[in-house]
Amino acid sequence: MNDTDPTADPPTTGADATEADGAGDADAADATEAARSPVLLVRENREYLLQPGERMETDLGILRVPEDVQPGDTVETHLETAFVVRRLRGPDLFHHFERTGAPMVPRDIGLVLGETGASTGDRVLDAGTGTGVLAAYLARTGAEVLTYEQDPEFADVARENMAMAGIADAVEVRTGDVTDDLDALVDGSDDVAPARGFDVITLDTADAPTVAARADELLVPGGYLAMYVPFVEGSREAALAAEEAGLVDVTTHETIQREFSYGERGSRPDTAPVGHTGFLTVARAPDAPNLVDDSTETTDGD
Ligand SMILES: C[S@@+](CC[C@H](N)C(=O)[O-])C[C@H]1O[C@@H](n2cnc3c(N)ncnc32)[C@H](O)[C@@H]1O
Fold first, then answer.
1. Which of 51, 58, 155, 274, CA to CA, is 20 to 30 A from 265?
2. pLDDT tens across 116-175, in order?
3. Which residue minimizes the CA distance to atom 3 of ligand 1?
């Protein structure tokens, strides 16, 4: 029997925690912010995503996360097994969120972020939420996200995922079919929709073309629409809907990525399945739709 009190705060080590004691206001504020965020407790092939103050029973003993835990600290179980504290990063969301709707993989999220440029201060309309991985990545860029999930149980899980990731304030998970709310989102009667329009719309639903057909009304001038579609037929339909809605720069990307292994005998792409995931169709709202004139001649000398 182990005499250690499992309910006592475990010992912690780590330069960050001790340095914060004597730091200035800014450092103290940073430390307070970090202390409110969830962290990963890592040991060999184990990773636990936990909140400051949380307690968890593991096969290596009971973990209690100190309220003032900091990345780089070491937290021991009551059996004195040490875990290192790691700051939560984007890919950790993909691995640790409770899964419902098939989450978008990090490489495809990279393409969405790269092609739309979603960033701090942007207002994003997202559907469907599913597991919420894309919505969470968008929020972690500093954007505010309104995301729709038609399945109430999936929506509840997504809200819990956002809370666990510490981004519940930046992501509103709305239960419902996004296509039912398009009028309200466009005409300003929705109290969450930005009056000036959304900066970015991201769609991962079979009915993306229905939303795309209203994208010119939903987006700010120059704003981006990104539609993630598993089949090329759906992707074509999405691209045509965006064009018919008057969006410009409509492009479709196939998302392919191969991992390489460096073996004794040589280097080559992994033999594991390459794995098609989807097509990403991106389009942009015209900068000044009222100035577009079909009769305008081109300026390339023709
Ligand atoms: C593939 S998952 C989305 C995954 C998400 N992008 C992520 O990274 O976790 C698609 C989700 O969209 C939801 N959905 C489909 N059509 C919808 C609609 N019109 N409005 C709201 N949600 C919808 C489905 O219930 C499903 O959970």
1. 274
2. 999 999 999 999 999 999 999 999 999 999 999 999 999 999 999 999 898 999 999 999
3. 130
CATH 3.40.30.10 fits 12-88, yes or no: no
Ligand 1 atom with the shortest distance to the CA of 177: 20
For the stretch 86-106, pLDDT in tens is 999 999 999 999 999 899 999
CA distance 86 to 93: 13
Q: Where are the domains of the chain?
A: 12-88, 93-291
pTM greater than the 0.70 cutoff: yes
Yes or no: say if 78 and 4 are a contact pair by the CB < 8 Å rule: yes
Instruction: State the Cα–Cα distance between residues 154 and 300, nearest whole angstrom.
Output: 51
Count of CB atoms within 10 A of residue 8's CB? 9
Mean pLDDT (the chain, rounded): 86
Residue 267's beta-bridge partner residues? 262
- Residue 136 region by backbone torsions, left for phi larger than 0, else alpha for psi between -120 and 50, else beta: alpha
CATH 3.40.50.150 for domain 93-291, yes or no, is: yes
Q: What is the pLDDT of residue 184?
A: 95
